[in-house]
Amino acid sequence: MLIKRREFLKISSLATASLLMPNFLKAMTLDEALAPNQNILIVLQFTGGNDGLNTIVPAKNDIYFRERKTLAVQDSLSLTDEAGINPSLSYFKELFDNGELSVMNNVGYPNPDKSHFRSMDIWQSASRSDEFLETGWLGRFLDEECYRCEHPTQALEVDDMLSLALKGENNKAFAFKDPKRLYQTSQEKYFKSLYDHHHDDETVSYLYQTLGSTINNADYIFEKSKAKKTEQAYPNSQLGKDFKTVASLIKSDINTQVYYLSIGSFDTHVNQNDRQKKLFGDINETVKSFVADMKSNGLFNNILLMTFSEFGRRVAQNASNGTDHGTANQMFFIGGGLKKKGLLNALPDLQNLNEGDLIYKEDFRKVYSTILKNWLKADSSKVLGWKDGIYDFI
Hints:
Structural class: alpha/beta
CATH topology: Alkaline Phosphatase, subunit A
Largest sheet: 9 strands, mixed
Strand content: 5-15%
CATH architecture: 3-Layer(aba) Sandwich
Number of helices: 12
Helix content: 25-40%
Order of helices and strands: HEEHEEHEHHEEHHHHEHEEEEHH
Radius of gyration: 22 Å
């Protein structure tokens, strides 16, 4: 049977939901849940370059207010004598006060790139700015750790397409937006009958094997998502729905240790405050629901929620009540197992800039290395090749 172009495209569209390697095809016959009390990482990507200065606000810095005459946040919620947090992140202030949130300021990398696509690739692959990698830092974690995995669902991304961060050389995460929709699509007779007609052509064969793996794994994920449905109320936003899905999976006996989500766009060249307020409001209420859900189920101490954005914004506002692409930024860490809480380092130095941009002080690869070694219990040197030490906040 010859494959028609229309069939090829339909197979490809379903196969992209997983991008799993063919050698995982038979893995669905084996079931391995996470060990009790095993640590779980949730990565929340702020897509588009979030403005860090209007997130963690240098509330006593005259330069900040001078450079942002109409854009500066005047009513930040106090964290320390010098720092405040955007009022739309009021629950983050509560987490901060409870010792359940840490903030790393001035995070970046040498020779920063201000292109959304290139900088995101750098963050997701954990490469140098002059290095181009085809694998991601969490994908390489899967390559190192999944010899112990009995399932290809060790990492999941709640999205229609798999990000570079979760692509390894031999192992890849599984991407989906809605477990039920993925399952229903995978059960269509058309796709199942197509899989029965195997093709020897190398490219087509890969797609058919990936299709078969998707069909099997879709059923597994859907069943786990239904196993322990959450009773916690979540915002009726896409992010709220995504975190509700993650919460249901965490409470089941699925073997997933890493979840990856994103929200955006934070590319606020125009009318920044309104856009940021809306996004922060969604994030604030969603995280509030998620933390309550995890606490009520005794899981919060085993959760680490990490946020990042591909770059920050320039110190000075532009003429459109927005900010343009910048460099260094902060990262949030939320969980019940933090060893160090609050602000982990100093606020950005607004007197010492590089042509109007912040100068990074902390390399994001050191943060990744810390998470891999101290939280995921992986060999960070093999995953990242990073040998310059780690932090001690987890």
